[in-house]
Structure formats: C-alpha cells, structure tokens
Amino acid sequence: MLVFGAWEIAGRIPISLAFPTFGETVAALLALIADGSLIKAYASTLQPLLIGIAVSAVVGVAAGVGMGLSRSLEWLALPIFIILQAAPLAAIIPLITYIYGIGLTAKSLAVILLATPVVVMNAYKGIRNTDPSLIAMGRSFLGTRTQQILKIMIPHARGLIFAGLRLGLAMGFVGVVVAELLITPTGIGDLITYHGSVANYAEMYASIVSIVALAAVTIGALERVERRLFRATGAAA
Amino acid sequence: MTIFGWRIPLAASLAVWFLAWEAVGQAKLSMIVPPVSAVVVAGMELMPTQKFLSAAWITLTAFGTGLGLAIVVGIALGVLMARVPRVGDILGLWVNIFVSAPISALVPMLMAIVGIGQATVVVTVFLFAVFVIILDTEVGVRQASPSLLEMARSFGASRRQLYAKVLILAALPEILAGVRLGVIRGVKGVVIGQLLISIIGIGEMFELYSRNFLMEEFWALVILVFLFAFAVSESVAWLERRIEYYAGAR
Amino acid sequence: MDGKIIVDVKGVSKTYEGGVEALQDVHLAVPPGRLTTFLGPSGCGKTTLLKIIAGLIEPTAGDVLVKGRRISGPGPERAFVFQDFALLPWANVLRNVAFGLELRGMPVPERHAVARTYIAEVGLAGFEESYPSQLSGGMRQRVGLARALAVDADILLMDEPFSSVDEQTRRKFQEDLLALLGHQRKTVIFVTHSIEEAVYLSDRIVLLSRRPGKVSRVIESNIDRSGSPDDIRRDRNYLDAVDEIWRTLKAYLP
After folding, report:
1. One-character DSSP codes across A94-124
2. Interface contact flag, B16 A76, Cβ < 8 Å
3. Interface of A with C in 148-207 (CB under 8 A)
4. Distance (Å) from the C-alpha of residue A80 to the closest C-alpha of chain C?
5. Most-buried pick from A13, B204, B246, C102 (CB within 10 A)?
6. What ipTM was reported for this prediction?
C-alpha cells in the first residue's frame, strides 16, 4: 500500500515525463484487458513458456538424476552445468532468433536455454546428497539398487527437484521476455516495446506490471505448494 | 572419476567437450558451430582490438558500478529489514516479488526514464543483483544467535560496535552467499541490459556478430563472457570458503 | 563351529582411504542370546567394527563369520539400529517401521500388520500416522528399533542408539529395551561410549583401546537382573564394574 502511494506521489510530481502515476497505470491495465490486446499477448507469450518448461523439466530432471546416479555421467557433465549455471546464457538468445526466426521455436528455445541448468543442478544435488545414513539403512535391510533409487533417492530428491522447476520457471520468464523484447514482435514483450515507442507510458507500465505480477504470483503459489508438500514432512532439503 | 586407478579431475571432462566440439566443427555439420580452434584464434585476434577493449571497459564499468551499489544498498537494507520490524514488514513482500521476477521486463521502462545509455545498464545490473543480497543479508542477521547479541551487550558494546563487530560478522556467511548470487545475476543483468539497449558494450558486439553470422567471433565472445562470469563467482566462492571455518560453528 | 558362538570376528583390520587405521587385528567371539557391548573412547573404531559385522563396511583384512558362514554384505539375520535413526522423513511411522519388509517385497496388509505389532511393542501405539519430524528424538529411535525388530533378525546391531536422546528418556528407553529383550531372545551387539549404559545393559562388555582399535579386555558382568531397574543401579557388582572399567579406560585418555 505504502509503496503504491509513493508511486502515485512520484508520478504526480512528476519525476519524469515517462513516469505515469499509479492510477493512470491501473486504468491503462484495465483498458488493455478490455480491448483484448493483453489477453492476445499472453496467449503468444505463455505458449512457448509452457512448452519450454515442459521440455526443461523432462530433459533436465532426467539429466540431473542420471548425473546423480552415475559417476561417469557426473564427471562428464557436472563442470558444464556448473559453468552454465553461472553464465549469462541470454547472450545466446540473439543467435537463436537469427537462426530459428521469430516464431514459437525461438522463444521456446530461449526458455529451455535459461531454465534447464538450474533444473539439472537441483535434480543432481537432490540425488547426490541423499543422506548417506539412509543409504546405509537401505543396504542393511537388503534393498536392491533399484529399490535404493526408487524408494530412497528419488523421494529424497523430490523437494529439490520441485524447487529446481520453480527456479527454472523464473528463469523461463526471463528467457521469454528477453526473446520478445529483443526481436520477436509478438507477445507481452511486443506490447511493452510498442507502447514504449509511441510514448503510451501508462500502457507500457501496465504491461510490465502485468508480467512481473504474473511471474510473482505463479512463483509465489508454487513456493506455497512446495512448502505444503515437502516441508510438512521435513522432506525438503 | 577414476580410470585404471587414476583419478581424473572433474574439470578434465571439459577437454572431452572441446574435442567433441572441434570434431563437429571440422565435420561442418552445422553452420553455427565452427571448430573450437577457429574460435580460439578469433578470440585471440579479438582481444587486443580497440573495439573489444573499449566494449569490455564499458561493460566492466557498468557491472562494477551497478554491483557495488547493489552490495552497499543490499546489505544496508537487509540489516535494516532484519532489525526494524516495520521496515521488514513493508519491504519484505516487494523484495520477495522482485527476487524472482523477470527484471528484464523493467529494462524498457528504465530506457524510457533514464535514457538509452550506460546509466540504464548500471541500474539494470543493480536491480538484478540487489534483491538477492537484501534477502540473504536479512536472513543472516535474523539468524545471528541471540546469545551473541546478549554477550555483546553484557560486555557493554555500543550500538555501533554491536553492528560492526557482531551482527555483520555473524551474518557474513549468508551475506557472502547473497553477494555471490548477486554477482552471477549482475553478470546476467549487464549482458541482458546491453543486449536490449544494443548500442553499447559487449551486448552490441553480440548483436553485430549474430546478425552477420560471424560465428567464430560470436562464440569467442560467449566463451570470454562465460569465463568472466565463472571467474568472478568463483572468487566470491573462494572468500566464502575462507570464512567457512566459523560458518559451521554457529 | 560350535553353537556357543553366533558372530565370530577373525583378525579384522580396517584402514580407511587416506591411511587412518581404525581397527587392527580384532579377534572376538560373540555368544548367542546375550547382550554384548562395545565400549571405548571416541574414535576407537567401535562403530566401524559394528558396521563391518553389519556388512556395511568392507574390512581391509580378516573375516566375519555369522552362524559359521563368512559374510560379504548385509544379511537377513542381522538388523541395524542407527545412531541418527535413519528414518525416511517423507514416510510416516507405519511405513518407516514396515520399510525393511517393504524392501523384501512383503504385501502391504501383511507388513502393516507386522509393523503395528512392533509399534505397539516399543510403546508407540497411536503414532502410526505421525511423521518423524513430529516425534521427539527418543520416539524416533523407538521407530528405528521397531523397524529392526520387524524384520525378525536374530541379531540386533545397535550403534549408539541413545546418544542423541536426553538423559531421562535414555534411562526409560534402556529399561524398556531390557524388558523387550527379555521376551524377544535376540543376540544384541550394542555400541556405546557410556560406561554406565554398558554395565547396566550388557552381559559382556568388550573394551576397545584407542585408535587403532584393538580388543583390550572382555568383562563378563555378574549383575543380578532379577530386581527392579533401580535395584540394578544400586547393585554392588554394578558399581564395582563401572569403577573397574573407568580405571581401565582412563589409561587410554590423553
């Protein structure tokens, strides 16, 4: 509340011509919803986001679990993912768009590129850092390797894998927004760029607020689900 | 990994990847994958050029300024939020929103307010880095053991001493963890900021090379930027390890 | 192999990677149906020895024979109780206790029936649906004990099971354990660093020397266990045994 108030006051002073008041922004947001342009933009933004996250989830979890289980895979792939996790992978997005054009493929690839490293690393850590005492327990009660993986390691890693997917989604939002802002004249990124270029600052702000809010609400909700599912039983890492 | 009883270091697998890259490049399987040897040559030629040096300088300045501001502001706000409940209540929600929000969406707004130039990149780096530093500092200060505070008070520590000699040091492991994440995000911020503005620094070069399909130069630049990101985050990690001896003993 | 020995440790040595010598040429025979304690200062290799008997650690040299057969890993005749409980945090008490049977592929209704019996046996009836994080340390270790009893092994291997439990809970637990073993007829090998615990619980106490661990003495205690727990703690033999062990162990301390 206080923050919104400060925004309203700052907008009225005004700090800059390109700084609409809070009220104007809300009005613009409602107008964008009413004329359907916001909904159309999101249809084009969310599709690559969902496709990208789904691909990252399947590929990333499989790769991470594999690395956690096999020492050779770990040796081969871990350094790559350690570097990729710290690297500004967004640098490669311009290349993707020049190769795959400005369509769904390029945007999905941008999401996959940014989201996968954290998904992989979390799945890997979840498997690799299974409590050694639980592993010894499984062995002492004559568990087979398959049982060890399915009944001890995977359940142990669930919390971290879920957290990895949540962080991956946050990175996916960044990926899709950067891809759209950079070149692709579609989706929410286009809405932001377009209204910025014609000096409809209130509309531009409204679009920005909507994507930030969407990301925050989605990720916040996932965090709560995560706490409900895994913290209650103390299974979160 | 051990082969025939020899322990092969983890990083050695990178050599395998480079060999595979070289093979794919030599086989000319894909136009976007030139041989890694050609990339290295391109990188060597690129580095001493005036163009690269000035781009690197602009990028480093933006990164350094933004990150420096983020560290100072982030630690100050984090301590404040942990020590003054009302500040924590008001800002907590917003910090939590922006720590995982796509800050890149804010760049067009910054371009409109701050102008298209270096200042916008600095602010982008700042915004990318600051929230995670605030969050970790707050957690660290909150977790500082109450008995440490009572000890300091019972020995007559002044307010300043309490903060400078106890609280900040007690929270140092978390603060450094936050700074390391902030550094990683800051590098991403400087690249994304420059890409979106696309007329300055390394970002402009990325645009230029990919638009003109100069793949050797493009990948050389990617490797250089990745190396830089890895080097700075590892140096903070090294600092973290140096204070690990007491991080565990709390 | 005569029937008087159930676990036979023959010349076991263990040197860890990096050169730490934990055990050196340990010989030891454990009689069936009794409670044997490994007692010694921290780092004397007593847990290592127990884990070698469990088949969880490979000895560098020497053999362990259980019921006359050389072991090469864990087996169904041995069940382990872990110092840190090793409970699955995502599983409730019922599933945790039944976990050993689950790994053996016993169908759900049967294994749950068995688990319920032992949950009641260790005094946790009513907590079947609780999760480990909702239980106190003492209760968690009762879950660990029930899990080990549920697989119906002849030999129970207990690795400092009460070390992370507070003193009062620990005493109660010790008494309950003795009562339980009174009608379970198990061979128990118990690792502890508490002299009182060793003397109170066991028939035979194996004293291990400082690293590298060797068997320094085996003490057979002659405590009259017919009385109440408090009688035992006031028994002359009990007090003498505690005293004697302390004098022996003092020599190993720096």
Report:
1. HHHHHHHTTSHHHHHHHHHHHHHHHHHHHHH
2. yes
3. 151-152, 155-156, 158
4. 29
5. C102
6. 0.85
Q: Do A109 and A49 contact (CB within 8 A), yes or no? A: no
Residue A45 lies in a domain: yes
Say how many domains are in chain C: 2
Residues of A in contact with B109 (CB under 8 A): 18, 196, 204-205, 208
Structural domain total, chain B: 1
Q: Are residues C33 and C95 in the same domain?
A: no
Asked whether residue C195 falls in the same domain as residue C120, the answer is no
In a domain, B16, yes or no: no
Contact B170, B82 (CB under 8 A): no
Asked whether the beta carbons of residue A140 and residue C80 sit closer than 8 angstroms, the reply is yes
**Residue B199, SS3 per DSSP:** coil
Task: Write down which residue in C108, C125, C152 finishes a domain.
Answer: C152
Query: B with A: 3 or more CB pairs under 8 Å?
Result: yes
Judging contacts by C-beta atoms under 8 Å, the chain B residues touching residue A181 are 104-105, 107-108, 196
**Nearest CA distance, A228 vs chain B (angstrom):** 18
What are the Cα distances from residue C155, in Å, to A95, A174, B1? Answer: 65, 58, 37
A13 touches chain B (CB under 8 A): no
A88 φψ region: left (φ > 0), alpha (ψ -120 to 50), beta (else): beta
Tokens of A87: 């690297």
Domain count for chain A: 1
DSSP conformational letter for C213: B
pLDDT tens profile A181-229: 887 678 888 888 888 777 788 888 888 888 988 998 899 899 888 888 8
Residue B174 lies in a domain: yes
> Does residue C21 lie within any of the structural domains?
yes
- Within 8 A of C102 by CB-CB distance, chain A residues are 151
- Residue A201 is which amino acid? Y
Domain around A94: 35-231
Q: Do A88 and B106 touch (CB under 8 A)?
A: no
Nearest CA in chain A to B206: A91
From the list A76, A90, A201, the residue facing B191 with the nearest CB is A90
| Alpha carbon of B154: minimum distance to chain A alpha carbons (Å) | 37
Taking 60 as the threshold, does the pLDDT of residue A237 lie above it?
no
Give the chain B residue whose CA is nearest to the CA of A206.
Answer: B109
Residues forming a β-bridge with C30 = C7
Q: How far apart are CA C55 and CA A91, in angstroms?
A: 52
- In this complex, the chains that touch C, judged by 3 or more CB pairs closer than 8 A, are A
Do C119 and C71 share a structural domain?
no
Counting as contact any 3 or more CB pairs under 8 A, the partners of A are B, C
Q: What dihedral angle (degrees, nearest 10) is formed by the CA atoms of B190, B194, B195, B196?
A: 110
User: In CATH, what number is assigned to the domain containing residue C209?
Assistant: 3.40.50.300
pLDDT digits (tens, 9 = 90+) for A17-70: 667 777 788 888 888 888 888 888 888 889 999 999 999 999 999 999 999 999
Alpha helices in C183-235, H assignment, sequence order: 195-201, 229-234
Domain span at residue B226 reads: 54-247
